[in-house]
Amino acid sequence: MAELFLTLLIIASVFAALVVFGGRFIVQRIGNALEQRQEASDWILSTGLAPPSWYMPYQKRIDLLRRLGLGESGVAWVQDRYKRRLERRLRGMLRYVEASNVISDDAIRRTMASTIRSIGRSWEESTWQAVTSQAQEN
């Protein structure tokens, strides 16, 4: 009987430790995600450009394709696809700004949303280089 009690106590302790540490991990991840989202929105609102954390993974792939010999028309096609992904992320940012209770002032929220919409329209009409401020590489 004592062995069963001890086994149950150990299992309960391990479970409690997993819940505590797992909870801390989740809270930390949520905090990091909110911080990254805030940094991205600050960058976009102040520059009108995609933040480097959004486009650098794509830029690395584009550079690799260039080194592998993909022609400029192929690179332009890939850049257009990646630009559309950036536009999609910007629309996600807009939904976040409109729905988030992190921004408590409604006037500020409307102003931010309007600015993001305007930036989105300019991105739709721009090239990859303009959206990411990348100089054309040859």
SSE sequence, one letter per element: HHHHH
Tertiary shape: flat
DSSP strand content: under 5%
The major pleated sheet works out as:
none
Radius of gyration: 23 Å
Decide which structural class fits the backbone: mainly alpha
The whole-number mean of residue pLDDT values reads 89
Low-confidence stretches: none
Descriptive account of the structure:
There is one protein chain. The chain has one domain (2-132). It has helices at 2-47, 52-67, 72-99, 106-124, 128-132. The relative contact order is 0.11. The chain is 83% helix and 0% strand. It is flat. It has 138 residues and is mainly alpha-helical. It is built from 5 helices and no strands. The termini are far apart. The mean pLDDT is 89.
Concise synopsis of the structure shown:
By secondary structure, the protein is mainly alpha-helical.
Chain-wise SSE layout:
Layout: H1 2-47, H2 52-67, H3 72-99, H4 106-124, H5 128-132
Helix pairs in contact: 2-3, 3-4
What are its keywords?
mainly alpha; 138 residues; single chain
